[in-house]
Amino acid sequence: xxxxxxxxxxxxxxxSALAAIRRTSAVDTVRARISLAVDLGLLAPGERLPxxxxxxxxxxxxxxxxRRALGTLEREGVVQRRPGRTGGTFIAERPRxxxxxxxxxxxEDSERVHRLIDERIVLEAGFAQLAAERLDQPGLDxxxxxxREMDAAGSWAEFHAGDKRFHLAxxxxxxxxSALGMYERVTGELYAYFLPYPLDxxxxxxxQHKAIRAxxxxxxxxxxxxLLRDHVAELHHSMYVGLADTAERGEDG
Length: 253
Known about the structure:
Blueprint lengths: L25 H14 L12 H8 L3 H13 L3 E4 L5 E4 L11 H6 L1 H25 L2 H16 L3 H18 L3 H15 L7 H19 L3 H13 L1 H4 L1 H13 L1
Antiparallel strand pairs: 1-2
Helix pairs in contact: 1-3, 2-3, 2-7, 5-7, 5-8, 5-10, 6-7, 6-9, 7-9, 9-10
């Protein structure tokens, strides 16, 4: 007989309707993510944003949504758009901070984000354990391609695309297709909370990818699982949920 999940038990498969960002329009989620990245110092004054197409792909929205969001952020004093061949969209030299009320939805979802990270840890550590035994040379080659793509990335948007492909290739290398659906749901929900990050930080993250790949190639299942567990667990501190907590403690002190 099938057991029924207690109504109060959280689940990545049932929690979408409960998420605060689900009650926020697509345009406002883009505004909130860019504004929050500015507030947390992840996007620096004067920094150029990726083009609309790359930004839309990285944030999982349409290009029209990004254009509308950037237009509003410009009116709010968060970004500046410059015409011409060397133009584009830049973080304002003195960006206005804490101007986007919809950032509150991200703060409201902090507990949910931490839970999604834990779910991802469980899944990816297990995938790494199996991939160390089952991943073939073409699979390793796919990981190498992703690593090179991330090394060559010129923006956080390009890096994010390579990062997603790396982790999906590793998950597929575990040879457990029945678990991929759950993994894609968890990561899909978690990616909705990712913010732009400085490239220097992301390049450090790619060094961890290289260490994970080396452990997989050596068939060292224990090391691969441990490295991947630690790599994903770092999100508790490096995602906005950890950075916001640190910033708030600093303000209180």
